[in-house]
Structure to design on (370 residues):
């Protein structure tokens, strides 16, 4: 028998956050993306909005499915970013609205927001105020620049945070300005960090009974992804961008130690190469080539038609290829730029992958095309 008198067996919790209630004040992408993952893990997430200040993603008409009347509830991007949540329309700047939302927070486990640092406190919903209602509340702030420092009162979007964190500086071709990223990378990545930080705080509360204020800056989440570049600059004096080739996807650089190298497995060549020009004269298509052994390099040389430069003895060994990686990459790209990316992939498959099946599935060339 159960405590309520029923005879049915107690249902096992299927997801780890079932029974956890989250009051979600986030908007646009990074914050809502964090709360979405909490909902996926079983939490009851209540998204707070009011008609005069709706989430900006509700207004993105470019993501409305064909044949659907545009409106605040029909945008695909908003629906994807906020899947699994409940919605509450309430004006927290009205005394009755503020009273109601505080009543909800008093019986909730998590409050999550991604406004600039002063907004929630101005509304009477800062951490110090809310922990009076719920001493063990987990309060997650995801402001662009955090809660302290000279820029804490600024808002931001993913691309701005990417630039300030150093991620943008590491992108693009040598000899050109940084290209930036093809999408708002830190909005999604920042959201995932937000979810992980919330889980960590909940675990801490489960073990100690204590709530806490998590101060997660979107910009700082980008810095965590540039750690190796910061270390390389501060310790070795090496820049993350160099004048000359390559774009920057190598596993190791000439002169770098090959033991415990932070870039991972030591292979050369290992890079992204431009393929045949597009109709407008640009190079928007790329292929990635990695040779994991001297034999695989020899196979690549054959695939390229055995050009004289590639047959040089200095490229026959890994050490030689690493030492002369700049000119080797330039030579490889002169070949890749003569073919389309799909032609390159097909050529590699016919010349290298198929014949190697009889040799314990050893692949002579790893080629990934976008």
């Amino acid at each position: 028998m159960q405590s309520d008198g029923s005879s049915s067996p107690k249902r096992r919790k299927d997801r780890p956050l079932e029974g956890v209630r989250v009051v979600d004040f986030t908007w646009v992408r990074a914050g809502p993306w964090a709360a979405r993952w909490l909902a996926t893990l079983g939490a009851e997430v209540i998204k707070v909005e009011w008609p005069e200040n709706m989430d900006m993603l509700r207004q993105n008409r470019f993501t409305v499915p064909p044949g659907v009347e545009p409106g605040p509830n029909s945008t695909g991007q908003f629906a994807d970013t906020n899947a699994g949540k409940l919605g509450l329309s309430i004006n927290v700047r009205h005394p009755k609205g503020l009273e109601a939302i505080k009543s909800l927070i008093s019986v909730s486990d998590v409050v999550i927001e991604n406004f600039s640092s002063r907004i929630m406190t101005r509304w009477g919903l800062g951490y110090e105020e809310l922990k009076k209602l719920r001493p063990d509340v987990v309060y997650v702030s995801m402001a662009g620049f955090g809660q302290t420092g000279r820029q804490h009162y600024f808002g931001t979007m993913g691309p701005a945070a990417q630039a300030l964190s150093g991620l943008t500086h590491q992108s693009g071709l040598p000899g050109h300005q940084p290209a930036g990223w093809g999408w708002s990378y830190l909005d999604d990545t920042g959201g995932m960090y937000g979810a992980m930080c919330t889980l960590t705080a909940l675990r801490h509360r489960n073990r100690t009974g204590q709530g806490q204020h998590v101060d997660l800056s979107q910009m700082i989440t980008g810095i965590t992804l540039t750690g190796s570049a910061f270390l390389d600059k501060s310790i070795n004096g090496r820049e993350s961008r160099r004048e000359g080739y390559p774009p920057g996807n190598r596993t190791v650089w000439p002169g770098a130690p090959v033991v415990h190298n932070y870039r991972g497995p030591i292979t050369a060549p290992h890079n992204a190469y431009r393929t045949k020009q597009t109709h407008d004269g640009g190079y928007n298509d790329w292929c990635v080539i990695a040779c994991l052994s001297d034999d695989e390099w020899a196979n690549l040389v054959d695939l390229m038609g055995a050009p004289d430069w590639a047959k040089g003895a200095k490229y026959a060994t890994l050490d030689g290829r690493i030492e002369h990686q700049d000119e080797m990459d330039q030579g490889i790209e002169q070949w890749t730029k003569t073919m389309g990316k799909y032609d390159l992939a097909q050529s590699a498959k016919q010349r290298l992958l198929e014949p190697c099946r009889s040799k314990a599935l050893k692949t002579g060339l790893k080629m990934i095309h976008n």
Remarks:
- The CA atoms of residues 60 and 75 lie 6 Å apart.
- Residues 185-208 form the longest helix (24 residues).
